[in-house]
Design brief:
Elements: E1 5-8, E2 32-34, E3 39-41, E4 44-46, E5 48-53, H1 64-73, E6 78-82, H2 109-128, E7 137-141, H3 158-170, E8 202-205, H4 227-235, E9 241-246, H5 258-264, H6 267-279, E10 284-291, H7 323-336, E11 345-346, E12 361-367, E13 375-381, E14 390-392, E15 394-398, E16 401-405, E17 412-414, E18 420-428, E19 431-436, E20 439-445, E21 450-456, E22 461-467, E23 472-475, E24 480-484, E25 492-498, E26 504-508, E27 511-517, H8 518-521, E28 524-525, E29 537-539, E30 543-550, E31 553-559, E32 564-569, E33 577-580, E34 583-584, E35 588-589, E36 595-599, E37 617-620, E38 668-675, E39 680-688, E40 695-699, E41 702-707, E42 715-721, E43 731-738, E44 759-767, E45 772-773, E46 779-783, H9 805-809, E47 835-846, E48 852-853, E49 856-860, E50 872-878, E51 881-887, E52 895-898, E53 906-917, E54 928-932, E55 936-937
Parallel strand pairs: 1-6, 1-7, 5-6, 5-10, 8-9, 9-10, 21-27, 31-33
Antiparallel strand pairs: 2-3, 3-4, 11-12, 12-13, 13-18, 14-17, 15-16, 18-19, 19-22, 20-21, 22-25, 23-26, 24-25, 26-27, 28-29, 29-32, 30-31, 32-36, 33-34, 35-36, 37-47, 38-43, 38-46, 39-42, 39-44, 40-41, 40-43, 44-45, 47-53, 48-55, 49-52, 49-54, 50-51, 50-53
Bound molecules: 2-acetamido-2-deoxy-beta-D-glucopyranose (4 copies).
Organism: Sordaria macrospora (strain ATCC MYA-333 / DSM 997 / K(L3346) / K-hell)
Keywords: Glycoprotein, Glycosidase, Hydrolase, Signal
Catalytic activity: Hydrolysis of terminal non-reducing beta-D-galactose residues in beta-D-galactosides
Amino acid sequence: MRLLSVLSAVSVTAGLGYAETLKPQTLLQDIVTFDNSSLFINGERLMIFSGEVHPFRLPVPSLWLDIFQKVKALGLNTPVNKAADAEASGGGFPGWLQRIKGHLRTADPEFLSATDNYIANIDKLIAKYQITNGGPIILYQPENEYTGAAAGIKFPDPDYMQYVIDQARDAGIVLPMMSNDASWKGGHNLPCSGKGEVDIYGHDGYPLGFDCKNPTTWPLGGLITQYRTQHLNFSASTPYTVPEFQGGSFDPWGGYGFDQCGQLINHEQVRVFYKNMFASGVTIFNLYMIFGGTNWGNLGHPGGYTSYDYAAAIAEDRTVSREKYSELKLEASFLKVSPGYLTATPDISNKTGVYSPNIDITVTSLVNYTPKGGSFYVVRHTDYQTLASTPYTLSLPTSAGNLSIPILGSSLTLGRRDSKVHVTDYPVGDHKLIYSTAEIFTWQKFSDRTVLVVYGGEGETHELAIADVFKWKSTGPPVQVKTVKKDARKSFTAVQWKTNSERRIFKAGNLHIYLLDRNSAYNYWAPQIADTSSSLIVNGGYLIRSASINGASLSLQADFNTTTTLELIGVPRGVSKLQINGETTKYRIDSEGNYIVKISYKVPTLFLPDLSKAKWSYIDSLPEIQPDYDDSAWPSANLKSTNNTYVGPLKTPASLYASDYGFHTGALLFRGHFTATGAETKLYISTIGGSAFGSSVWLNNSFVGSWRGSGAASVHNDTYNLPSPLVAGENYVFTMLVDNMGLDEDWTVGDDTMKRPRGILDYSLFTSTNISVPKSDITWKLTGNLGGEQYRDKARGPLNEGGLYVERQGYHLPSPPASASSSSSIPFTGISQPGVAFYTTSFPLSLPSSEYDIPLSFVLDNPTSFESGTEYRAWLYVNGFQYGRYVSHIGPQTSFPVPEGILNYNGENWVGVVVWATGKKGAKVPGLKLEAGTPVRTGRKEVEVVDGGGWERRTGAY
Ligand SMILES: *[C@@H]1O[C@H](CO)[C@@H](O)[C@H](O)[C@H]1NC(C)=O
Ligand SMILES: *[C@@H]1O[C@H](CO)[C@@H](O)[C@H](O)[C@H]1NC(C)=O
Ligand SMILES: *[C@@H]1O[C@H](CO)[C@@H](O)[C@H](O)[C@H]1NC(C)=O
Ligand SMILES: *[C@@H]1O[C@H](CO)[C@@H](O)[C@H](O)[C@H]1NC(C)=O
């Protein structure tokens, strides 16, 4: 299977046979080239229609092909990968960048030299997989959203951008460089602008925004119709490129959940907004995200929670049941068979009232002046916010003259939140449509006939006209036909019908047109036959992954979620054997010559463990507050200064910023030792952990207080009364637990938000009369994950574990030693006071996973409100992978999908749950279940279990 690939900041895309507007002399290779309309790859003009996938958000390499097949089945041809930004912790920057003084993403030599090693190595690898070396990588994006800067920062800085381009060039990247300006402002690093210029200019667009609270509201002015004009102003000589366009929405802690975001960014958004981009002539077009995945193992930034579903077309659990997946398939499959789109010229003038007399409708044209290209007319509501269904007629120039459509009377309809692409003089193999108001899904020229599949909304009137006059036949409900005889070049056969769920096939000579309603069209696929340029058309199935022909045998890889019938249209002559997912399958051939296949689907019986009845072990994960606890092995917080001035000068005698000590991920613990004067009664403490973080503090083994966290708050100041009078001359210790929700991204150049520290910003001890005790009287130690930057878990990587006792010991990994467990308490009774409890259990699974793809999720019971004082924060570990973070009173996520491969579907599995009770009453998990979604009979290859290793005694663990 061949999908191209784009890496972004570090991001990548492809193509050319030189056209005149190109500057081939500046390209370093001749495989990926471009003109002002599109890319060329090996001289072939093509659209790059891609979806963004971050493989690191699905840590099961054997499932990546499953995602790529689901992307390709849509009709897309490229995925984009990003190594930076992407709502990852620190925006993908390593935490140690907090320790350099230099401004990030600027020409500051300290920053640049900090990037040299990584870029040299990663780009060497990328260079190896460039298309020029036979790999899939076609474009390279050296920065991302280099669009705005903090006051006092040189911006845009051509020296900086040239440096990052040169880094890539020096490592052997020869592909064109592209950019991705944030949409609100643009024009940076334009081609031909000199130092720091890219080859292909691009910008992103999130026109519907991220307000998942109001998922049915399309905001005023949301549909941007000026993109083409902007493109011509900025970069008329390059293809119109949008490296990120809204494929979904992020959702923050305390947000509304991805189901609701999916109502905002749904199939209607895909219809109206993507077609608006086609009206603007976009030919390099990437959807952010096509599959979001999971922020497992602390890899997300604090602006999001564990799920990175993104309400994308492919859901976090890899299912493809969202309507937008099907809608996107209709659009991408159409463009795939419409090469004329790439050479058509978008008209940026105001066309309201020109192609339709109804000014409530705006029709934008992309007229093709090349022979046999076809022209495209994109119809939308003039007022894009309207919910009206609007009747309209068209007046279109065609090779048969100016036509008022429909010519058979009646009128067309544009439904609420709809947009359509009508075509004229559109080539369909050896035939030509003079026009069609029904939208095209695909067409394929087979040896004996050409099949065109068109669709319209249910109940709509549609009309198309085929060049020439034919003897025709039609099956299904009646159609109205009118033949217009003019001179030979202008004669045509017009067909009108009212769409319903019953299929019609209209046959004009060997052109067979399948007239469908949209819901039926959703069931169609056009899989390319491997190693050929032809495709089949398949009606039915949950997913058609691929098709191949070997001698007389046709093989399909396909998934089914119900008993169904498959119809294979255009099976090549000579095929006498059908294999589906490797099994020889019976078929019959119907009167249309289509292969009809009965697929049976049985719901498999799944035995899932009842976690409420499981045998759990309990480990106290806060031994630090016990009187005999020894922290002598902990690192001392002994840095009297920091390079990190993000929040201003240090307020504490020594830095208490975790990244100054190499701790960049997960929970942090601080130990503050002091000798009491006897007068201390209050502790003021300012902690910082990122959105929704929490903190708790104990004095010796007495609970002092907690900040339970709230959605957006990333810093919290509190003054706590100490539990009891202190005794002069006695030694005391504070134990502080501070959550790190991930490091902030670094969006605005040079403002260094990525350096926003994690840990303790300030503290004071006060007497009852508010007299402050000198700060240096407390000496601090701290810890995060065991080993900090010398992290222990090389399999799961540097971010997966934080500083909790059980994590430092590795007890979250499979098979922790029984001796670590102090009782058999269970998460459902929990603990009765503030603290940190760890519960672990194991269970075998035996699931029919070679035949079925079975989505599993851990689901926490979600009482509508928590009794005040019983809030908790939880971490979920599955076979050692942290696959869930939960904050009971903030939410919104309660269901945590875990992919097969992390779960061993045929073997033993270990699950761990940390419960951090922040309130005085302690906490319990009201309920935890392992639940299955619909098992899909699957053609994906078998999943390899990711063996991250189990518990081993860790030397030096404390
Ligand atoms: C099967 O897949 C279709 C298409 O994606 C979807 O509409 C339907 O809800 C699925 N059925 C089940 C039982 O999941
Ligand atoms: C476009 O043209 C229509 C019809 O002439 C007019 O009503 C409308 O105001 C124009 N729109 C813009 C943005 O100029
Ligand atoms: C601050 O940066 C300098 C290099 O500029 C480095 O030598 C020093 O170790 C850094 N200090 C800290 C506390 O990280
Ligand atoms: C915490 O206190 C500091 C110092 O007084 C102040 O600047 C900051 O705004 C406070 N933060 C919050 C979240 O209250």
